[in-house]
Design brief:
The complex is a heterodimer. Chain A is built from 1 helix and 24 strands. By secondary structure, chain A is mainly β. In chain A, the strands form 4 sheets. In chain A, strands 1, 3, 8, 9, 10, 12, 13 and 15 form an 8-stranded antiparallel beta sheet that branches. Chain B is built from no helices and 10 strands. Chain B is globular. Chains A and B meet through strand 16 of A and strand 1, strand 2 and strand 4 of B.
């Protein structure tokens, strides 16, 4: 959900400011009811409107632009977009204040307008959405996903925001305040800072389209998928793509224990490729010619006499005499490349 | 025995809205939900890789949802799968398999969760998706279906994909 403002008394505010000087960026999604007057979307002010950084919907200005306004001692400088706001639809507004003499306004990631008049606001100590102070330029319409950065976002970053990407994903290290404005909490939560917004009247409305940080949760493989083989003499491919496998004696030439989360081979004399693509593997005696223990997170090979390329692309590799977090190799008679391509620690 | 194994799960925050006709984010007692309107079909997409331990038995989608306020009436949920196989599907266009559906009744108590399932048989219904392949899942409220009689929004909490 979003917040709806009635254009008279509704506002969200905090008696502190997440940023007080340039560089800074203000951005939000807004859906104005009409485009006939100039309305405040986000303002960082001194509480009096004499000193302010403001993102404004400029409906009273020719061309109905989004405006990036710097006001100092009641003297104002504006950057206006070359494109126009429209009523009744969600659109993205952004004001970038990169220096005291450089500001830019964006509508939907484009229409960039700039201004280079020098203005230095002072005494900045308050934040408001939908209005400046208690009565200045009240906004009529919806606002969502409001955010403040203590940096000047680039043109490309502003364009990303306008695609609907959450502010959490755009230069997060500089994001000093983020109010999704879901509309169910009062005060409205600041998800990254300490500037919750006191709600005065603004009601709940349908949210804009937003792409949030997301993921998928995978479930662990159940025990029923474990595989055990006491003696593997076959040449066939064994124990592949499963959670765990155990081969007591492997003399087969086939591919074994591939794509598993853990593998254990007690006595491996087979020439086949073994224990690849696993999270962890243990081979007590490897005399095989096959390439072993590749692309795994951790491995232990107690005796490696094989000629195959072993222990490659691992994060941890341990060799005799004991399993440790670093690799210890006493003898490596094998003729192939043994050193891992990528290893956390290794001692030879 | 792979039947019944949970494969993956998405919450309301894990869905990507399409360019238009998407459900909107909302919060209900702190639970993040996606609000699907009545009257107009709305969809949301989730992405994952089908886990390697999927054994080919088909898929069951379990949808956890609530009604915003209704305590009667039915909602029609659709689900579709888009396979993204190696050097195959062109992602510049959507390529979902035909929708599979369930008609489910609102819980009698407002705020109670309802669990509804949609099944995909192995093969064309799941776009022939195979273990290890990336895919998209689209969940839609078929709001303009004559069988969708639930008044007001329905709220999606989460969905889980299970091997049938």
């Amino acid at each position: 959900m979003a917040r709806a403002f009635n254009g008279t008394t509704d506002r969200l505010d905090n008696a502190a400011a997440p940023v007080t000087a340039v560089p800074l960026t203000l951005a939000c999604w807004f859906n104005p009811t009409a485009v006939t007057q100039s309305d405040v979307l986000i303002a960082i002010t001194d509480g009096s409107s004499n000193n302010t950084f403001r993102l404004e919907a400029g409906g009273a200005v020719a061309g109905d632009p989004v405006r990036a306004i710097t006001r100092a001692a009641a003297s104002q400088a504006n950057a206006d977009t070359s494109t126009s706001i429209s009523a009744g639809s969600w659109q993205h507004g952004c004001a970038v204040f990169s220096a005291i003499n450089a500001r830019a306004a964006y509508l939907n990631g484009g229409g960039k307008g700039t201004n280079v008049t020098s203005r230095t606001p002072t005494g900045i100590n308050a934040t408001s959405l939908g209005m400046e102070g208690a009565s200045f330029e009240p906004y009529t319409g919806l606002i969502a996903e409001a955010a403040v950065w203590d940096a000047a976002l680039t043109d490309a970053e502003v364009a990303i925001l306008a695609l609907g990407v959450s502010p959490l994903l755009v230069r997060p290290a500089s994001l000093v305040a983020y109010w999704p404005l879901i509309g169910r909490n009062s005060p409205e939560n600041d998800r990254v800072g300490t500037f919750p917004l006191t709600v005065t009247g603004a009601t709940v409305a349908d949210h804009c389209r937003i792409i949030r940080p997301r993921g998928v949760r995978y479930f662990a493989v159940p025990a029923s998928l474990l595989d055990k083989s006491e003696t593997d003499t076959g040449s066939g491919a064994d124990s592949q793509s499963i959670a765990a496998s155990f081969i007591s004696t492997d003399i087969g030439s086939g591919l074994d224990a591939l794509g598993v989360s853990s593998a254990y081979i007690s006595d491996e004399t087979g020439s086949g490729v073994d224990a690849q693509g696993v999270a962890a593997s243990l081979a007590l005696a490897d005399v095989s010619a096959g390439a072993d223990l590749q692309s795994i997170i951790a491995s232990l090979m107690l005796s490696d006499l094989g000629s195959g390329s072993d222990g490659q692309s691992v994060l941890q590799l341990g060799r005799r005499p004991e399993f440790v977090s670093r690799a210890i190799c006493v003898t490596m008679p094998g003729s192939n490349s043994e050193e891992p391509d990528c290893i956390g620690e290794s001692v030879f | 025995m792979a039947s019944g194994n949970f494969l993956c799960q998405w919450g309301a925050q894990d869905f990507v809205p399409p360019a238009s006709n998407y459900p909107t984010l909302d919060s209900r007692n702190g639970h993040l939900v996606l609000d699907f309107d009545a009257g107009t079909d709305e969809s949301a997409d989730a992405e994952a890789i089908l886990p390697a331990h999927y054994a080919g038995g088909g898929l069951t989608l379990r949808i956890c949802w609530m009604a915003s306020s209704a305590t009667s009436g039915d909602v029609v949920w659709n689900a579709q799968i888009e396979r993204q196989e190696d050097e195959g599907t062109d992602l510049d266009a959507d390529s979902f398999a035909a929708a599979q559906a369930v008609t489910a009744t609102a819980p009698a108590t407002s705020g109670a969760v309802q669990y509804s399932t949609i099944t995909f048989t192995s093969g064309a219904q799941m776009d022939s998706l195979a273990a290890g392949e990336r895919f998209r899942l689209r969940v839609t409220r078929d709001a303009d279906n004559g069988s969708d009689t639930l008044v007001g929004d329905v709220e999606l909490l989460s969905v889980a994909l299970i091997e049938t």
